[in-house]
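Section 3.1: Structural characterization of target chains.
Under the original work plan, the team committed to producing a structural model for every single-chain target entering the pipeline before any wet-lab resources were allocated. The record below documents one such target. The sequence was received from the expression subgroup and is listed exactly as submitted; it comprises 197 residues.
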Amino acid sequence: MARRFRDGRLVIASHNPGKLVEITALLAPFRVETLGAAALGLAEPEETGSTFEANAALKAHAAVEATGLPALADDSGLVVPALGGAPGIYSARWAGPGKDFSMAMVRVHHELGDKDRSAFFVSVLALAWPDGGEELFRGEVHGALSWPPKGDNGFGYDPIFIPEGHTQTFGEMPADEKYATDHRARAFAKLVAACFE
């Protein structure tokens, strides 16, 4: 049985403004005060894990250690089976130090060539407490990659990903529609059911 979240404040252990906005919106109904890692001046820990789960836990525990508050971290990425699972846990690194995802999307497109364009997004949420406890929740959304990029909504690889059952990319979808269907929302639904409801 998962541990219930009873604290009033929660550090969102992410320096990605898009993730912070999305997670804060998802937490809004639970009257939790969210504090962003960047606003708190927290350093970004090096992601040395070999899985989304390991990296999410690493980030959450680093934020707990720095603040003494419970923390929620997300590790997510785009998995392309035809590229051997890349960019996967290295999704942000493919965007380079400047986090230029237009460059990352071009790289995915060129490396894919005429290979199968099936892909899926993974999000793992790690909720960690000051006593060392943690809960992990994984969400996935499957679909296909399109080219050229379409839409200015979302972030990361959203403009080239069309989820199953849809005709628009995540980049074209209104935020409320994307939040209802994406990988983070699926992981978040598991988190809420286990720890907040």
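The domain at 9-195 is CATH 3.90.950.10 (Maf protein).
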